[in-house]
Amino acid sequence: MTRVWEWNRPVTVREVLEDLQKERSIAYTTVMTVLDNLHQKGWVRREAEGRAYRYEAVSTRAAYSAALMNEAWSASDNPAAALVAFFDMMSPEQRHALRDAVRMVQIDDPESTEPESGEETGEAEETTPERAEERATGEGDEPGAGAGGAGR
Asked: Which of 43, 55, 58, 149 has the fewest CB atoms in 10 Å of its CB?
């Protein structure tokens, strides 16, 4: 998929093969099989050109990445905790990109302009996976709840 996305145009098996062979030895049939599998999975479309096919990406790399993230998030038994753990792994640059993306979504949805808890108010809220789980399940909202019964 990387090669198809990089070219951003319909490509042949031969073109992908020649590009990959600059880095390693690979067989024509291997490239053909991978592109055929991607076609069967719906990630590329193909159009006949003589005796060969030209393959073109159905979606962007960003849409593919988003689908993978959504699939992983949906598989979690606690999506809020999974998101907090994921955010904790992010670099400052990635967090900045996330803030920009949230702002873009809020622009598209005028009803979502109210700040979330701790947002734009300067309040700092604990953002551990455990706290996300407490928020998602409603636990820990009262003093002394969660964290083994100890107050915060």
From this structure: 149
* Tens digits of residue pLDDT in 96-143: 999 998 998 888 776 655 555 544 444 444 444 444 444 444 444 443
Q: Write phi, then psi, for 11 (nearest 5 degrees).
A: -125, 155
8 A C-beta contact, residue 53 and residue 93: no
Structure tokens at 117: 């808890």
Rounded Cα distance, 23 and 20, in Å? 6
Backbone torsions φ then ψ of 46, nearest 5 degrees: -135, 150
**Both tokens assigned to 103:** 């702002």
**Distance from C-alpha of 113 to C-alpha of 104, rounded to nearest angstrom:** 11
Task: Round to whole Å and give the CA distance between 27 and 106.
Answer: 48
Distance from the Cα of residue 2 to its chain's centroid: 16
Cα end-to-end distance, the chain, whole Å: 49
Phi, psi dihedral angles at 119 (to 5 degrees): -85, 135
Distance CA 35, CA 14 (A): 11
